[in-house]
Write a structure and sequence with these properties.
With about 240 residues, the protein is of the alpha/beta class. It is built from 8 helices and 12 strands. Helices cover about 35% and strands about 20% of the residues. The strands form 3 sheets. A 5-stranded parallel sheet has the order 2-1-3-4-5, sandwiched between helices. The chain has a 4-stranded antiparallel sheet with strand order 6-7-8-9, with helices on one face.
Length: about 240
């Protein structure tokens, strides 16, 4: 993620909060530097109140050379035409200061998902993901454990796929809530915990979703001599 923000205080606070949530963050203080840093960036969070170059103009310049998603941030809208102008200039979404970091995280994942980016479940080219005796068949939306199909609810399946596609990297709680439930507020944590428990129980493989305390979950590996008993019964769609 690239944050384009000229004020140190807000930039440092936002960088720290996003880093704790698992993002790799770079910062630019002006438009010229931002244009030089676009390589490898998955999303740009752009403050429109930059001192040297108008944020709307910078939007246009970024869009002329890259299709990276842009979330424009501003302290005030004089009227709705400002927002329309920004969207026409290439912004994919808007946030009005002050904003909650959880809302920004949700919007980041939403714009990446809409664009089919690296964090999106859309367009995955792998047919299946295998770990131990568990096979996640992406195209068929099925999970097979020890040769038997296990029925998961829609969000349980989406949760399992999101963590599995990370390839062992940690998926933060905020990211899972944003992508699976489109809600990264703290109120969703209990729902996430219940769904994680359901996945572990239904698959009969409690190791499949490994808890990283205080951060989130990653794909687990079967321990030596792991129980290979059959999975529990099918669950109800949620």
């Amino acid at each position: 993620m690239l944050i384009v923000e000229d004020e140190d205080g807000p930039a440092h606070a936002l960088t720290s909060a996003l880093t704790r949530r698992g993002f790799v963050v770079e910062r630019s203080v002006d438009g010229s530097d931002a244009l030089d840093r676009l390589a490898g960036i998955e999303v740009v969070v752009l403050d429109l109140g930059l001192p040297e170059i108008d944020g709307i103009e910078l939007c246009r310049k970024i869009r002329s050379i890259s299709d990276v998603p842009i979330i424009a941030v501003t302290g005030v809208f004089k009227d709705v035409s400002d927002r329309i102008l920004g969207l026409h200039a290439g912004a994919d979404d808007y946030l009005l200061k002050p904003f909650d970091v959880g809302e920004l995280v949700a919007r980041v994942h939403a714009v990446i998902r809409r664009g089919g980016g690296a964090h999106s479940l859309v367009g995955n080219t792998e047919e299946s993901i295998k770990v131990g005796d568990v096979e996640i068949q992406l195209s068929r939306h099925e999970v097979i454990v020890a040769g038997e199909v296990v029925k998961l609810a829609r969000k349980e399946f989406a949760l399992l796929v999101l963590v599995a596609e990370a390839g062992g990297a940690v998926c933060t709680r905020e990211r899972i809530l944003a992508e699976v439930w489109q809600d990264s507020s703290p109120a969703g944590n209990r729902t996430l915990d219940v769904h994680v428990g359901n996945v572990r129980t239904k698959l009969g493989r409690p190791w499949i979703l490994d808890t990283v305390r205080g951060i989130g979950y990653r794909l687990g590996r079967p321990p030596a001599g792991a129980d290979s008993s059959g999975p529990a019964g099918p669950g109800q769609d949620q």
